[in-house]
Design brief:
heterodimer, A: 815 residues, alpha/beta, 7-stranded parallel β-sheet, 6-stranded parallel β-sheet, 40% helix, 16% strand, globular, B: 223 residues, 9-stranded mixed β-sheet, 5 helices, 16 strands, 31% strand
Chain lengths: 815, 223
């Protein structure tokens, strides 16, 4: 056992603390090349990660950078700096600690490169930028340890892949560099360990005491949840009652729009004026900081929030977490619950509020999963190649490189361990020449191979452009919202450009809990005035629309197989019994399809349980196939568990619709032209460096030089459908918004076993789907027709018909 | 063929969904801002290496419009080449293709701001051109009866909760501004100040696409 130096021992003793077993373990294994700590929130995780660093630096004989700390949040980097400074100052340790993020000033950043601190706290993007400089080896000389915080969150996105590629570069500069990952509880720690360690180094996993089981239950309400929809408005009186009975409550929502609506409604019923705030990623920085400060100061009794508070700092004295809406994912639910009660060894308290009757089932299933500690998650696929392309560019910006060495280096990142040389070479070719069959850019290629065999930038000025485009986070095109004021009023937050385009002067929407009136757009800023009296339109925020996890969906299907459900509240229980009586309940290994007429239209409901995104894609694919079969589908709507399709003709033989080869083909041909695929393409096009990020300045100037990535997608599809980026797009479409992979899982699970139940009316389980928002019309030329309708309406409103003869001439449309 | 009829200074014009303007009476076809060789120029300047198929694609569409309208004259309204050097980036095949399109008809390259009118690509060059009541030039002036390009106007409409964005023609009683015809061309919002200053109060737009349609240009609002 490694002894804690005297100074440290005394410091712990003075505070009346003793070292946690996992902190001691971390100290004992400080020499391991890789180490993963799994600990619940509040378990002294950060100190466990830094203790070996502080001990090693206590002697004062280390020059230069010693430990690099990387976290997914800028706020976490500055918070940890403050927290670390306390023991360092109190023990009088000769250690310099600084953070470096996008918010750090240019002079400070420059100085950090020349004279780095002992401990540098940063984000994956700032680190990627650092390794793109030619002087990176000098700055990182002496680096001994890298601590990656919240690694479970990073491992779920491309930011993590970028980080691991950056570490593979650092490892080459500093062969003795050791890696430490700090993670919340996850379903597959070994997968995170593989992701963290240099391949094929071993990586020991240390488990901290997980603490007592959480105290978790459903919130009891007087009113029963509604049949459909989200938001949980019905539960507001019960939620307010809980807020009253606790010190500080976090009220989590799955989407920003729902958080806004709930917050608005909550205040309408908050007769006592309990101090309640709102926090989500689309609010302005100022707004969020104000709420955070009020919370730390203990001035707020509750905060309505979204995933923006999933990670990070210990917020004040939270003693209750309320989750509104089905949790969709057990692991995230557990992490959210962990936000309550940061005192070690006290149980966290949480309440679930299903937003509708089906979600009652999902909440019960999630409760059972939490109690059984059965977490969910999708296995990590191979490292994405668009991120690799960006890494190659970053490497080139730092100076000439040898392709063989770079290939060996990147395979040191676990996610890229299986990368074939051919795939790697294709990425190099793409970065160098665009990788087109038509070798158009041989003269102007971005990278050239010199006589020495090394690759270098043709034009050194390209390095600057590469640096400006670093990162894998894709912001939707957002516009700032500000109060209208001659000198530029208070910033409120951001809304999507697409939403802004649907607003006309006088429209109202909710942001930060206020109803505001759209006044106009000035220099790409949405100007609004306060308007408390009108029913608002709701701002649409991109955010991620979480799909119910595979494991949770299967748990629900297993629940359906039971004879009765004593755990379910009576309305939901009766509803399921009624469904069983009228039709049947969906089963794990079969696809249930119900067909019935309703209001003069044929309806078909497919219970695929593949999650929202996949069910949406399935709706697109099935309606395309039904169109081919002459069934005249007119529209569909999807939820996490089912897709309801309506049209003119009744479906008689559903089996051929689910034929795998046919669905695949429809996916490859028809869906390939879809807007969701284009969005997927755009993300990879930006990450891989095919197109540059648009800065706010460029958009503000309204420059006409930039054009939509959709055009590039269409051109590639037409002229070079096998291009690397198209291949990457197809791979990405297996997950994320398109999520075709889960459709394939569904086909595997059910292996062609289709139960088609034909009825004379709507079934109980299908009924709520009729109330769902987000209906998608299916019309070959829907957009064209809608446009024409809108155009004639506008012309008529504007009184632009002119004389009848002219009108006739103006409106003749020849086909 | 889908068209929208526009009258300008007694000339009866047809806006095509492709972004070309047809004047049947005079057998004239007008296109603007072809920006041939754009991807080549971007790569040359160390920018993105875009799919190098846009010249091919632009010529394919132009070929189809010419076949359909069979004009006696084609006017390319400036910024035909993305810049001076883009001429060198055109392949022999592409030059031959252009020559074939020019055969048997008058072909006028109007000078643009990206390029002086190309001198060695067949046809003839001019700063401006006047035909009957209409004047053709690259950048709009206050003169009436003028057809111009340059701004790449693009319309945006809210349709059932989503927004649709399309290159568009803009016209009022005295002016018509063409959409960009080239495959790789962005757009300037139809309400942006330079366009708002040029167009009168009763300005309309024709949205390009499979079924072109006319829409009044909104006022005091830009997105």
């Amino acid at each position: 056992m490694a002894d804690l130096p005297r100074k440290f021992h005394d410091w712990f003793a003075q505070r009346g603390w003793s070292i946690h077993p996992h902190q001691q373990d971390m100290l004992d294994r400080a020499r391991d090349p890789s180490l993963l700590l799994i600990a619940p929130t509040g378990g002294g995780k950060t100190l466990a990660g830094f203790l070996p660093t502080l001990v090693e630096l206590a002697g004062g004989d280390h020059a230069g950078l010693h430990t690099l700390y990387v976290s997914p949040l800028k706020a976490l980097a500055s918070d940890i700096r403050r927290n670390l400074t306390v023991p360092v100052t109190e023990m009088g340790l000769p250690i310099r600690i600084e953070d470096r993020t996008g918010d750090t000033s240019a002079t400070r950043r420059k100085r950090q490169r020349a004279d780095p601190p002992h401990i540098l706290l940063t984000t994956p993007e700032s680190l990627a930028l650092l390794i793109s400089y030619e002087d990176a080896p000098r700055m990182f000389a002496g680096l001994r340890r890298v601590v990656i915080d919240e690694i479970h969150a990073l491992s779920e996105s491309k930011r993590g892949d970028q980080l691991m590629l950056a570490l593979s570069r650092l490892q080459e500069m500093c062969p003795g560099m050791r890696r430490v990952g700090l993670s919340a509880t996850v379903e597959d720690p070994a997968a995170i360990a593989r992701f963290l360690a240099r391949h094929p180094d071993p990586c020991e996993i240390i488990h901290a005491d997980p603490g007592p089981d959480p105290d978790i239950a459903m919130l009891e309400t007087d009113a029963a949840p509604p049949w459909s929809g989200g938001g949980g408005r019905y539960a507001i009186p019960a939620v307010l009652d809980q807020v009253r009975r606790h010190k500080t409550t976090l009220i989590f929502h799955n989407t920003r729009a729902q958080a806004e609506i709930f917050f608005h409604e909550l205040w309408l019923q908050n007769d006592e004026g309990l101090p309640i705030g709102i926090h989500h990623g689309s609010l302005s920085r100022e707004q969020r900081l104000r709420v955070e400060a009020a919370m730390v100061a203990g001035e707020l009794r509750a905060i309505v929030c979204t995933g923006s508070l999933d990670l990070g700092i210990d917020w004040g004295d939270v003693d209750l977490v309320i989750q509104i809406g089905a949790p969709k994912n057990v692991k995230r639910l557990v992490q959210r619950i962990g936000r309550a009660n940061h005192r070690y060894n006290a149980p966290s308290k949480a309440l679930l509020v299903p937003a509708n009757r089906f979600e009652v089932v999902e909440c019960v299933a999630a409760l059972q999963a939490v109690i059984e500690r059965d977490l969910d998650g999708d296995p990590r696929g191979p490292g994405p190649r668009d991120v690799l392309c960006q890494h190659i560019l970053i490497r080139a910006a730092a100076g000439p490189f040898d392709a063989d060495s770079l290939y060996d280096e990147v395979r040191g990142a676990g996610a890229y361990a299986g990368l074939s040389r051919a795939d790697f070479d294709a990425c190099i070719a793409f970065v160098a020449t665009g990788g087109y069959a038509l070798r158009a850019y041989d003269q102007w290629q971005r990278l050239k191979q010199g006589a020495d065999g090394l690759w270098h930038l043709r034009d050194p000025r390209t390095a600057q452009r590469i640096r400006q485009n670093i990162g894998t986070i894709m912001d939707a095109d957002l516009l700032k919202v500000r109060m209208k004021n001659r000198r530029g009023g208070t910033p409120l937050g951001e809304i999507e450009e697409g939403f802004a385009a649907t607003l006309t002067v006088g429209n109202t929407f909710l942001i930060g809990g206020q109803i505001v009136r759209y006044e106009g757009l000035r220099e790409m800023i949405v100007e609004v005035t306060r308007r408390p009296d009108k029913e608002p339109k709701i701002a649409t925020f991109m955010g991620t629309k979480f799909a119910t996890s595979t494991q949770l969906s299967e748990r629900i299907l297993r629940m359906f197989a039971e004879g009765d459900w004593p755990d379910l509240p009576a309305p939901t229980r009766d509803w399921l019994h009624l469904q069983r009586e009228r039709s049947q309940l969906p089963q794990t290994d079969r696809i249930l399809i119900e067909s019935f007429p309703h209001e003069g239209r044929a309806h078909t409901c497919v219970y695929g349980f593949a999650g929202r995104n996949a069910m949406q894609t399935l709706g697109l694919l099935l309606t395309a196939r039904m169109e081919e079969q002459g069934l005249h589908p007119m529209g569909f709507v999807s939820t996490d568990y089912a897709t309801l399709i309506w049209g003119l003709d009744m479906l008689v033989h559903p089996e051929p619709l689910f034929d795998r080869a046919g669905l695949r083909e429809t996916f490859e041909t028809w869906l390939a032209g879809n807007a969701v695929m284009k969005r997927t393409f755009k993300q990879s096009a930006v990450i891989s460096g095919l197109i540059e990020r648009q800065t706010r300045g460029q958009r503000k100037s309204g420059k006409q030089a930039t054009f939509s990535a959709d055009i590039l997608y269409d051109v590639l599809r037409k002229y070079e459908p096998d291009h690397l980026l198209m291949d990457i797009t197809r791979e990405e479409a297996l997950k994320g918004l398109v999520d075709f992979g889960r459709i394939e899982d569904m086909l595997d699970r059910t292996a062609g076993r289709v139960d088609h139940v034909v009825l004379d009316r709507v079934t109980p389980l299908a009924a709520p789907l009729f109330l769902e928002a987000g209906r998608v019309p299916v019309e070959g030329s829907a957009t064209e027709r809608l446009l024409a309708e809108e155009a004639s309406r506008l012309m008529a409103t504007a009184g632009l018909e002119m004389d009848p003869a002219a009108e006739k001439r103006h409106w003749r449309a020849e086909d | 063929m889908n068209i929208v009829n526009i009258s300008l200074r007694s000339a009866h014009l047809q806006a095509l969904g492709s972004g070309a303007l047809h004047w049947p009476e005079r057998r004239v076809l007008v296109v603007s801002d072809l920006h041939l060789g754009k991807s080549e120029r971007m790569a040359r300047r160390g920018g993105a290496m875009l799919p190098p198929y846009e010249t091919h694609d632009t010529l394919t569409r132009l070929d189809a419009d010419i076949a359909r309208c069979d004009p006696d004259a084609v006017i390319s309204l400036g910024d035909s080449l993305d810049d001076d050097a883009a001429r060198a980036g055109l392949t022999p095949d592409e030059c031959a293709w252009l020559a074939r399109l020019q055969r048997g008809r008058d072909w006028i390259w109007i000078a643009g701001n990206h390029d002086p009118a190309p001198s060695d690509l067949g046809g003839r060059s001019a700063e401006t051109l006047t035909l009957g009541p209409l004047t053709f030039r690259h950048i709009a002036t206050p003169a009436t009866g003028e057809i111009s390009g340059h701004y790449h106007p693009k319309a945006r409409l809210a349709v059932r909760g989503t927004s649709v964005s399309r290159p568009c023609f803009l016209y009022d009683e005295t002016h018509l501004i063409m959409p960009a015809y080239g495959t790789y061309t962005g757009g300037l919002d139809w309400c942006a100040p330079p366009l708002a200053r040029l167009m009168g109060r009763r300005a309309c737009a024709v949205l390009t696409g499979k079924h072109p349609c006319a829409v009044p240009v909104p006022r005091r609002r830009a997105a």
